[in-house]
Amino acid sequence: MDWAGLNAFVAVADHGGFSAAAEQLHLTQPAVSKRIALLEESLKARLFDRLGRQVVLTEAGRLLLPRARQMLAEAEAARRALQDMNGTSVAG
What we know:
Elements: H1 3-15, H2 18-25, H3 29-43, E1 48-51, E2 54-57, H4 59-86
Antiparallel strand pairs: 1-2
């Protein structure tokens, strides 16, 4: 599981599709699809049911979503804490 995959997962869940998520993330739709595929492979679980252009969270996706949001929020909080401690900008 990686941050880019989790970020893509949350974006697809929030936007209801890969194209809208790609636009929000400033990525191509195939790049978002690849990140989701890699995340699903690493978790050994399908996270979305794909219904044409629409996607719906599976049970596994519904289970992961609040945890993914929490992990991403904690990562951002850690980045900010380090930035504040150093008094400089931390790449992220």
